[in-house]
Structures are given as C-alpha cells and as structure tokens.
Amino acid sequence: MLPAKFRLVVVGLDSVSPDLLYRRFAPVMPRMGRLLAESARGTLRTCDPPITVPAWGVMFSGVDPGTLGLYGFRHRKPGSYDQMYIPNSGTPRRPMVWETLSRLGYRVAVLGMPPGYPPPAVNGVSISDFLTPASATDFVNPVALRPEIESVAGGPFFDISFRVEGRRKVADELFEMTRRRWRVARHLWKKEPWDLFVIHDIGPDRLHHTFWKYFDAQHPRHPSDPEFASIGDDFYRLLDAEIGSFLDLIGPDVSVLVVSDHGSQAMGGCFCVNEWLIEQGYLHLAGPPPAPGTPLEKTPIDWARTRVWGAGGYYARLFFNVRGREPKGIVDPGDVPALVEELRSRLSGLHTPTGAALPVRLFTPEEVYREVQGDPPDLMAYFDDARWRSAGSVGHGRLCLEENDTGPDDAVHSFDGVIAFRDPASPVGTDLGEQQIIDVAPTILSRYGVGIPPYVQGRPIRPLL
Question: Please, which residues have CB within 8 angstroms of residue 226's CB and are 6 or more apart in sequence?
C-alpha cells in the first residue's frame, strides 16, 4: 500500500559502481549499510556514452541521449572545425522529472544535478551543478536565496580542480567540498516538507580520477605511497557520515532512492585517435608535427585533404569533413556509409604496446538512439569497453599513452552504476538484479501517480511500484 502522500529523496552519487558501494567500501559505511539492508537494490546499467552528461539527464527524463541532444561534456558547434560548447540546463530537449512535477504543483528542491547551470526555475529551489562557471553569481533559483546558501556553505561547493599535480591540495579541497555540499543539503531540507528532494554529489568521481591507483592494488600504476593509502576509506567514511546526518533529518514516511550515473574503473591507457587518423591518411596536418600534447584545435590542419578528425574524452567522437556541411568539406554525403564501414574495419585490429588486443566498439548515433537531435558526432568509439580513454591531442609520435593527455588521471568510467530504493511501506532488502538507467524517470513518475508522458522511452521498474 502506497503512502497517502508520496515523498522522495534522491541521493545521486557520481561514478559509484556496485563493487565500490556494496563491497569494497561497505566496511567503512555503516549508515549506508543500514539503508541498503532496508532497500531493494541492484545494478543500474547506464547509457551510451557512460558520461555524467548525458547519463543523469537520461535517468531523470526517461529518454536516450540522442533524443535529449546530449553526447558528452563538450559538443562541436555546427559548421566549425575547432569550436566546442558545453551543454547546459537548457540543452536537453525533454523535461526532467522535477520540471514535470513542478508544473503539477509539487514542491521540489534540486541541488547540483547535471546538467544544472543555469539553475532551472522550479516550484521550489534549484542550485546549479559542477559545470557552474567560477565567476557565476546566478547559481541559485530563486536568486534571493543566494546569500543564504553562500553563508551556509561557507565556501565553494560546486567542484574542484582535479586533473592537476599536487594531490594533497586536491584531497583537502575534495573533503571540504563534500562537507559544504551536505551542509547545504541539510539546510535546504529543513526549510519545508519537500515532495521531491534531489542532491547530486560529484565527490566520488573526483576521488576516483585523482586517487584510484592508491586504493586499487590491481591498478597498472599502483604506487606504494603511505600518504594516500587510506584515502579511499577516508573519503567514503566521510561520505557515509554526511549522508547519515542527512538521513537523520528525514521522517519515516519519506522514500529514499540512491543512484549513480555510471561506475568507475582503472584507466588502462589512452589511445591517440587523431594520431591514428594521421597515420592512416584520414587527417592531414598543414605543417610539421607539433609539440607532444598539442590540442588539435591549435594545430594547423590541411582541410582540403582531411576526411575525418576526432575529439578525445571517455570515448572518441569522430567527425567527417562532409561536403556541403563543413566549410571545406570533401566527403560526398553519399560516401558516408562506406566511410563508416571502412573505419570499422581498420579499427578492428588495434593493439596495446604490450601486444594485447585493444578491442574497439564503433557505432553511429543512429544505431543506438531512437532520435538524433542536437549536434552529434558522426561516429562514436569505445576502446576496450571504455577502459582506455581517447586522446584528441597530437604530436605524440605514438598511438598509446600510459596517462590521460589532459592531466593526471587514474580512472575512467564503466557502464554499471547502482540503484537502491528504501520504501517505508516495504522496508525489506531485495535484489533488483540489473535495471536500466532510462527506466528511473517513469518509475518516479509512477510512484507519484503521475501519467507517463508519451515521449518517455523507459518503462517503470515493476518491483519498485
């Protein structure tokens, strides 16, 4: 039997895998352990690509990345070879559940859920996400709450610089950011009896990128460094305490949903996609090779001879120099399908420096999405199931790097996140098995008794209804 008035708290933990939450750090997370024991829990399979943006958008809209027009942290501006833009809260082409519920009169609070800058207008409060510019002052909606939020936080709590040298500074800022974020969450919760309260914590993702090799003995670059040997336990212990303090405030009639957008795994290396395109004759420089690590957009390119170029990141985004679409396009639109198959064939035989096979999954947006909106790449490629990043920079003189080309980095994303749901009407731990990220939004709407809009592609998770 459902409560007379359904109320929900969503705890979004960025980059947390089932292994991390359910096993590896379970001994230092007693409060989370108690919550999980009372919850239906399982694995939440993420979307293509397994990236914070678009994964959270998929989770809370119920449609795939192509329909949203979200393909990652950076998108190429149409008609440009070197200009990129960062998606914002206005980019998704379908509403999030808090926007839908707001229109129906529900009171909602959303703290830091991407893509969240600028903070959307809701029937309640929204605070923007980790993509908030450092100089921004419009990070709270309604804006009148900004001085109050700043006072409670006591300092920045959106994000930290993490792909940098000097890990001690990163650690200090990470722990403080986490304290500030949950301080704000507790303050907001006490303001009124919210119908929906959503908080996103980017902290786990930053921990994994900066310190994974220190707490994972199987990492290919695992060091013997006593200074950071316990940092994984220390952070997850802090996170558990902060979440526990928040849970102490909520009443017995409030449901709790713990979710992550994707998981994390040790980074195997970095494949230099543009170096490969140069080697194979698809991409031509207009001059000698630049210094190692030069971004492609700062490198002179002979576009009159270039058919394909790429952008790096968690996956490779390949763009075709199509006649009539790009300023100096040379690929006939009718030749695009053949070019796709040619690349698929040539990328099938890659190897790492040790001689091991480097598997590649190559697909077009049309092959995986129901709709393809916005500014997609022409091809998408995962290297070794996303264990290897894609390096977009050039000048390396080799195809494989041991590290990220954009700065120190220990981890990449994986496809399995977490889902755990505590229902006051049924406080029994059950196994949900594997669920799909696209099904979370229709599940939430169903629990509120709200009709699922016809554009939603996911389906409610039946055990949670």
Answer: none
The answer to whether 433 and 42 have CB atoms below 8 angstroms apart is yes
Question: Omega of the bond prior to 427 within 30 degrees of 0, cis?
Answer: no
* Residue 25: count of CB within 10 angstroms of its CB: 21
Q: Quote the CA–CA distance of 220 and 272 in Å, as a whole number.
A: 19
User: In degrees rounded to 5, what are phi and psi of residue 322?
Assistant: -85, 130
* CA 389 to each of CA 253, 269, 360, 394: distance values in angstroms, whole numbers, following the listed order: 44, 6, 12, 14
Q: Tell me which DSSP letter residue 452 carries.
A: P
> Above 80 in pLDDT, residue 428?
no
> How many residues comprise the chain?
465
Residue 3 lies in a domain: no
Q: Looking at 408, 434, 454, which one is the last position of a domain? A: 408
449, 384: one domain: no
Quote the number of domains for the chain. Answer: 2
Q: Are strands 416-422 and 255-259 parallel, antiparallel or unpaired?
A: antiparallel
Domain of 177, in residue numbers: 8-265+413-464
- Check if the beta carbon of residue 316 is closer than 8 Å to that of residue 383: yes
Determine the 3-state secondary structure of 447 from DSSP.
Answer: helix
Based on the fold, state whether residues 104 and 61 are members of the same structural domain.
yes
Written in H, E and C, the secondary structure of 258-303 is: EECCCEEEECCEEEEHHHHHHHCCCCCECCCCCCCCECHHHCCECC
Single pTM value for the model: 0.96
pLDDT digits (tens, 9 = 90+) for 370-423: 999 999 999 999 999 999 999 999 999 999 999 899 888 999 999 999 999 999
85 and 143 in a single domain? The answer is yes
pLDDT in tens, 178-234: 999 999 999 999 999 999 999 999 999 999 999 999 999 999 889 987 889 999 999
Give the domain CATH number at 60.
3.40.720.10
Q: Which residues, 6+ apart, have CB-to-CB distance to 146 below 8 Å?
A: 137, 139, 140
**212 and 254 belong to one structural domain:** yes
Last residue of a domain, one of 408, 425, 442: 408
